[in-house]
Amino acid sequence: MAPDMVTVIDLVLLALLCAAAVALILVRQLFAVAILAGAFSMLSAGLLVTLDAVDVAFTEAAVGAGVSTVLLLGTLALTQRRSEESRRRGTGPALLAVVLTGGALVYATTDMPGFGDPEAPGFRHVVPEYIVGSETDIGVPNIVTSVLASYRGYDTLGEVAVIFTAGIGVLLLLGRRREDEIQDEARRSGSGDEG
Amino acid sequence: MRHHLVLRVVSKLLIPFMLLFALYVQFHGDFGPGGGFQAGVIFAAAFILYALVFGIDHAREVLPEHVLRYLVPAGLALYTLTGFAGIALGGKYLDYDVLGSTPTAGQHLGILLVEFGVGVTVSAVMVSVFFTFAGRTRDVDEEDW
Question: How far is CA B101 from CA B31, B89, B108, in A?
């Protein structure tokens, strides 16, 4: 039996994701870590495309692989470029906790409804109403948009408020310079002119 | 990155198409994949690419920080006011049915407005955060990495 194309692509992407994750843990050079994190996001975006979640894949590729990689690199430029060696002590209990939690999660997936199963409980509550209403009441072919902006308009308003608050927070924390920093810079540029 | 000729030429070619694609994702979100969040990020990515290749000072000339400071709350305000417009026209908060001549036209207008609000705030926040980080960074020699 030949596996279908999507399964092959999924397996390749998942294998690459695992490789990227292991490399992320092992590498100490933080520049490589930032780039690997971007690659990890790009691979996740590919997986989301195979799941037909193109909207999420868009966001993952643009935010995860694009903007946040740039911000990570910007942070590296402000701090240092190598991580400290961690002291390897007491990894036994941590490993046990991870294995137990992971095992419980894998065991729980066997109870989940099949992928795309229309009889799944999550698809029975309001979803049929949204699918019909998106066409008849709203007239928008992309159901994601009609749910996001109309049926769930309050949630999206909250999300925009969260992004707004996060942006304001960064601007307040990092946008202004402390007085000693300004003096420091003035001194540095002053001495640069003399030299 | 003054001497990276290939990067400069390729980004100069790509940036207009990135901006155009962002606008397409923004205003075509009702029909195809995408919407305000995605469009905002793509729009911001175009500016960030410009700033990376041509320098943050040039990018600040294109999109000054005092303009960004108004754009960050402007998108959220547009979303909120669209909600209040629903109340003013006799509906409920964020009820788009009353915004147009027919409920469907109202839904289209309401979705367009709130998605545009999302796009404005998201792109302004992304560019502001990048400017803030990059503005604190001393120039890094390429050998330092």
Answer: 21, 11, 11
Q: What Cα–Cα distance (Å) separates residue B67 from each residue in A175, B19, B125?
A: 15, 18, 12
B90: helix, coil or strand?
coil
For residue A81, what is the DSSP state? S
What type of residue is A151? Y
- Using a CB-CB cut-off of 8 Å, the residues of chain B touching A142 are 29-33
Using alpha carbons, list the distances in angstroms from residue B127 to A71, A158, A176, B120.
11, 21, 16, 11
> B-chain residues within 8 Å CB-CB of A59?
37-38, 41
Q: Could you tell me the pTM of the whole model?
A: 0.82
| Interface touch B38/A70, C-beta < 8 Å | no
- Nearest residue on chain A to B81, alpha-carbon basis: A157
Domain extent, residue B123, equals: 5-140
Asked whether residue B101 is domain-assigned, the answer is: yes
Go through chain B and tell me how many residues it has.
Answer: 145
pLDDT for A4: 83
> B145 in a domain, yes or no?
no
Token look-up 């002119």 returns A193
Interacting residues of A177 by C-beta distance below 8 A, sequence separation 6+:
A185, B136
Half-sphere exposure in the Cβ direction for A2 (13 Å, CA): 3
Q: How far is A140 from chain B (nearest CA, A)?
A: 5
Q: What fold, for A1-83?
A: Four Helix Bundle (Hemerythrin (Met), subunit A) (1.20.120)
Task: Answer whether B62's CB lies under 8 Å from B50's CB.
Answer: yes
Number of domains in chain B: 1
- Per-residue pLDDT 10s for chain A (195 aa) are 566 888 899 999 999 999 999 999 888 888 899 999 999 999 999 999 998 888 889 889 988 888 899 888 888 887 777 777 766 667 788 889 999 999 999 999 888 888 778 888 877 888 888 888 888 887 788 888 888 888 888 999 999 999 999 999 988 888 776 666 666 666 666 554 443
